Sequence to fold (305 residues):
Amino acid sequence: MGAAALLACDWGTTNLRAWTLDANGRVLADRDFELGVSRLAPGEAARRFTDEVQPALDAEGLPAILCGMVGSNLGWTVAPYAECPGGLGDLARAMTHVEAGAQPVHIVPGMRCEGFTGATDVMRGEETQLFGWLAQYPERARGRQLVCHPGTHPKWMLVEDGRLVRFVTAMSGELFAVLGKHSVLKSDAAPDDAVAFDEGLAAAGEGDALAARLFTARARVVGQGRPADSTPSYLSGLLIGAEVAATPRLLGCQGAEPVALLGDPRLCGLYARALARRGVQTETFDGEAAAVAGLFALHRMGEAP
Fold:
């Protein structure tokens, strides 16, 4: 491998993941930092980047590219959203430059579209993984693709000929966390009961009347004697099951279209299980590798004359 040529960072709400890459985009070193933007005071991101992130990876003399919530009003500076439909080139042209030493630092803007209700939907970070995935698998840039990125706020993305046309955000991950800590469904048990997860998938139906379906997580324990420590697994199945049943329809997909799952392998596995129950074929792709590929592709495109 060659010398380090780029510092690439995925800087989110709770964590910062950084890599140094060589001139061909191969990872030379990586580090995690507990520097998510939710932990930082206003104006602190630039100082922590130059004082901690760059030195930790011997990257003071490297150009840098950052994606994620670092470009929000909680982060370093607001990088205005790029519009959908849009492709890699549109995203690269919309990057925001910030000052951090002699070398250029660019922040990826995120994207926005008109949501299914007519209101705006937004993302920061997932777009970089999406376009990195397309860079890794160029054949996917032809035709139509339905991509799901599981997480705290899962994104369902419709791609046509390499351009992100539209997307829908769900709040399944955040609902799971809030209900598990601050409701009658609260529990410290691990969500590792596969039988209860499948029960939740069955209870999700077509994703309608979710507020009513959620109460079954309580009723099955107090009314049927199911073990209370199975509640987190049941709740996970119910929320993911409702999401995979209802959300693709909001993008005009009728349920049989294959889904590419992009992100954390464990979460993708749960979504694959839920979609398989509905007869939907899936393929799973590593989100971290896609993020690195996306950051490198944006850097290269931003350098092009």
User: Anything to note?
Assistant: DSSP finds nine helices and 14 strands in the chain.
